[in-house]
Amino acid sequence: MIDPRLQAVVKAYDVRGLSPEQLDPDMTFALGMAFALETGVTGGGTVVIGHDMRDTSPVLAQAFSDGVRTQGGNVIGIGLASTDLLYFASGDLDLPGAMITASHNPAEYNGIKLCRAGAKPIGYDTGLSAIAEKATTILNGSGLASPVASDPQGTYEERDALTRYADYLHELVPVPAGRRLKVVADAGNGMAGHTVPSVFAPLNLELTAMYFELDGTFPNHDANPLDHSTLVDLQAKVLETAADIGLAFDGDADRCFVVDELGDVVSPSAITALIAARALITTPGATILHNVITSKAVPEIIVERGGTAIRTPVGHSLIKAEMARTGAVFGGEHSGHFYFKDFFLADSGMIAALHVMAALAETDGTVSELMAQYERYVASGEINSTVDDGAAVMESLSQTYADLPQDRLDGLTVEGDTWWFNVRASNTEPLLRLNVEADTEAEMARVRDEVLAVIRR
After folding, report:
1. Which residue of 36, 100, 369, 455 lies most exposed, with the fewest beta carbons within 10 A?
2. Closest among 45, 22, 20, 24 to 35, alpha carbons compared
3. What's the burial of 201, exposed, middle or buried (CB within 10 Å: 0-12/13-18/19+)?
């Protein structure tokens, strides 16, 4: 039985909650102890830990580290890090890892993303629930699965991982030096302000840096580019500076969104298709994953370029597991998460940004021209609706469209001749999330309004 305090913060893929109201140092200490037990580092093994720029992050990182060390585990602290930098350190050192971050959530939140050695994901069904159960035992003072020392027994050392991370990314995605790009990057006062300077320094570009000051209060805007209202400043700066491209990163910099030279937001599905096309040049016939809400242009383009497209549910732990099972070289989500086989199957917004810049640098054209070949349909974007009984609404939708092809891979997907929609339940809120795509704007609007009428009646 998991303690209700832990139930409130342990989610499908990570730990997330108000801090310190829900996630405080004591709970984080217990989770560190439980993580050491779950990953087997109690006999002198090592854990790598990073943290973001939120006000509560250094204290929580210390508490987690102390929890690991009381169990006899050693800790390598990499300090300030993006989540993909932590994944790199876990993969490069082949160690379990913990990242203290609440990603794109507002300032009052914090959280913990966990992985096994080699950046292998830990989700609720692959270790996180077991960690929560162990932490419950610790919090309730009713004993542990192994003896706990009253004082830290494991060692602690600080180590720089940023330099090796930047060098590794340049090996993965060389950006041609011939064309000098004008780039605007908006870090949203998040961790891209720490990683972008090191990664971009060797590149032939003119960088306009926006909100690179690390500030966990997010004084300029929330670091959540999935909410396009947070991109307004970037769009304006791209136009003001006549930049070639704009890049926006979320709070922990594992997601990247692109703005073209016209100030328009590029669909993450189009970026998925572009990276897939590039991957199929270097690895002909490769398998590539895409989730249920990416544009149908993505599997079309993968197949046209000679690859194998596999559709997956939404969620990083699910996608990483499927990549490992299928040997896929790349996977993309419409939320702006991009996964790479050569990056320990982990997601990296920075690698996606390098791919787009490399593709642009190989041409004399613009981002809008480059991406036009990957944008074939009209999408609604994700529309959230608060519902009392999501299962009943889903069943009503299924009955409404009973004469059309449907599947339940992730939520409910219904396919018409010239359109499709997917409705999924939120993992954390009483919401249904709707995505619609169609051949034309008018058709998309018609289906969107029709489906919303059923959801909200």
Report:
1. 369
2. 45
3. exposed
Domains of the chain: 4-161 (3.40.120.10), 181-266 (3.40.120.10), 268-372 (3.40.120.10), 378-456 (3.30.310.50)
Interacting residues of 257 by C-beta distance below 8 A, sequence separation 6+: 225, 226, 231, 247, 248, 265, 266, 268, 336
* 179, burial (CB in 10 Å: exposed 0-12, middle 13-18, buried 19+): middle
d(CA 112, CA 128): 11
Q: How far apart are CA 300 and CA 284, in angstroms?
A: 16
Q: How far apart are CA 358 and CA 347, in angstroms?
A: 18
Q: Kindly name the residue from 103, 267, 295, 335 that is annotated as catalytic.
A: 103
d(CA 370, CA 255): 21
CB neighbour list of residue 254: distance below 8 Å, 6 or more residues apart:
82, 83, 84, 87, 103, 337, 347, 348, 349
Is residue 411 within 8 A of residue 419, CB to CB? The reply is no
DSSP 8-state assignment for residue 224: -
Tokens 């619609």 — which residue?
A: 436
383-386 and 431-438 as β-strands: parallel, antiparallel, unpaired?
antiparallel
Residue 103 is a catalytic residue = yes
- The SS3 call for residue 304 is helix
Range in 127-136, 230-239, 246-255, 309-318 the model is least confident about: 309-318
pTM over 0.90: yes
Q: Do 209 and 219 contact (CB within 8 A), yes or no?
A: no
Q: How many CA atoms lie within 13 A of 319 on its CB side?
A: 30
β-bridge pairing 308-312 and 287-291: parallel
More confident residue, 316 or 394: 394
pLDDT higher than threshold 80 for residue 129: yes
368 phi and psi, to 5 degrees? -65, -40
Q: What was the pLDDT predicted at 363?
A: 96
The per-residue pLDDT of the chain, averaged, comes to 95
Tens-place pLDDT, residues 149-170: 456 689 999 999 999 999 999 9
Question: Residues of the chain with pLDDT > 90: what percent?
Answer: 90
Residues sharing a CB contact under 8 Å with residue 386, sequence separation 6 or more, in sequence order: 429, 430, 431
The average pLDDT across 226-245 equals 97
Kindly indicate the confidence band of residue 146, based on its pLDDT and cuts at 50, 70 and 90: very low
